[in-house]
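U., I forgot to send this yesterday:
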Amino acid sequence: MKTIDLKTYAPRAGRVVEWTASPATVAAAARAAQDPAPPSLNQDAHVKSYLAARRLGRPMSTWLATRFEIPGEPDLAALDRALHAWILRHETLRSGFRLVGDEVARYTLAAPDVALVRGELGDYAGAEEIRDLLERRFEEHTDPRVWPAFHFLAVLREDGATLYFGCDHVHVDGYSMLFIAAEIRELYTAAVEERPDGLPQVGSHIEYSRIEREFADGVDSGDPRIVRWREFVRSCDAGAPSFPLELGVPAGRMPRQRALLTELVDARTAAALDGACRAAGGSIYSGLLAAMSVAAYELGGHKVYRAAVPLHTRSSAEWIESLGWYVGPAPIEIPTHCAEDFRDLVGMARRAVGTVRSFPAVPFSRMVQLLGEDFRSNSLEPFSLVSYMDMRVARGAEHWEDWKAAVLGRTYWGDQVYLWINRGHDGVHVIGRHPDTELATANVTRFVDHVRDVLTTVAEQGNRALVRSERDGALVAAGAVH
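Result:
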């Protein structure tokens, strides 16, 4: 599924409608009692970070959005029923959060209390008008402290409709966005045809949150995962890893960010790369980490590549297609200087990932709590992040091009680099955000280009030697721009 920067998106014109909670539903949310099920630790930390950023006047980009098309003349009554059914399908969408003192508490609406009202916004003739409307509506309706923290909007035309859904991160992760189009389209078709939908039942993220909290509360500072995190952050000077090249951001500053959207390799190259990585005993994921370790070594002189990588925590079948936040970070360390070539690094990366598969089960905020003074960060974004996701396994992935399904994103403020690397049927793409400084733009571009060159060489030749300098690995200084 492609990602589109909302700033450059050109939606088609049409008649615009939106769905909001009915007055009775808003009233029910206001009087809802505190849910005994607490927010997950990710949700708790997210709401607090959101509030801290707002207080600093530096709003974080906390909503995720998707768009897809529905063919034929829209049946709005059927779409009403489909959206309502989809909210009831995922219990997290019926829950909200409020502060009780200094703590974040959950409340959850009963299913009979949930109702949507469709409203007409009129005809919009220009792409810029619709783009501005989307940005404004998502910003207004995705506050994690307010229910609902999501919003539906559609642009209707005679030959079909484009449906948009925006939701605060508190209820969704990146993988959640992948199956929304298939689910809502199936619910819509079932409503039109007046038949039961063909979707499997899914588990509740609220129940997952309760289980996660119970587990996390039982983890202490002697847990091997906490011990390993402590060793890791000490090697990063009492923090988590930053981007391996300089970004030109003074300490303590939160600059505006810039989006990065680029193809890493096409589908044919990805298939060849996959084969080369498997021949080396790994996968394309370990190959990507290997390529990043090469870039960090050859461009920045980092003999050891360290990264925080998000891994999913959908450990039970009931949560595979459950909407929610099922992700936690794990510490990756690759001793690049010990390798001779790419194949060596693939093996190192595979072993590094294998040793930390259980680490995301301990939420990051709990890890930070247990590390105490060993972990220090002056940023609202405690680390740079490198994510990989194979999107081809998601429900409906083979139809995304026909559905014109895409993720919509935008950037706000931040001092770190986030890189999301996604594999689809059309190849491997990088979606990123980084500080909007001249040095960051140059170095992030250099880094991604170098990774691409490494992967392309491996796809063509099956391997690539690690390039060492004449001065025993004393390579190009971090931040140098060529």
